[in-house]
Specification:
- It is built from two helices and eight strands.
- By secondary structure, the protein is an alpha+beta fold.
């Protein structure tokens, strides 16, 4: 598998409005709403995104990191061949993606641009 970059980071919090305001007003990230996403999305200058969601609004995503891949289906096949359990692929207006847990027990994503 070839990881092309970091495309997404997200955080879930019971203080979503305060965190979204902080990201917008203090960090100065531009709001970037996306259809099919139940989180406040913000664009970074390099093209990556940061999401702020409420607890369990987008499933078990208390903290997630998304790695950009060119071919999501091929990358999923490689993870499965390595014995990694992978969720079913999902999509929003910008990306196709799949969640998986790495050996550290943390949630990660593989992301393909649409």
């Amino acid at each position: 598998m070839e990881v092309l970059g970091l495309v997404f980071a997200g955080s879930a919090t019971d203080r979503r409005p305060e965190m979204a305001r902080f990201v917008d007003e203090v960090l100065g990230l531009a709001p970037a709403p996306a259809g099919g996403v139940s989180a406040d999305m913000f664009a970074l200058p390099d093209g990556a995104f940061f999401a702020v969601a409420g607890p369990r609004e987008m499933g078990e995503t208390s903290r997630t990191i998304g790695f950009l891949v060119a071919d999501l289906d091929a990358a999923v096949a490689e993870l499965q061949a390595a014995g990694v359990e992978v969720d079913e692929p999902a999509a929003n207006d910008r990306h196709r993606y799949v969640h998986f847990r790495a050996p550290d027990g943390k949630l990660y994503e593989l992301v393909e641009e649409r």
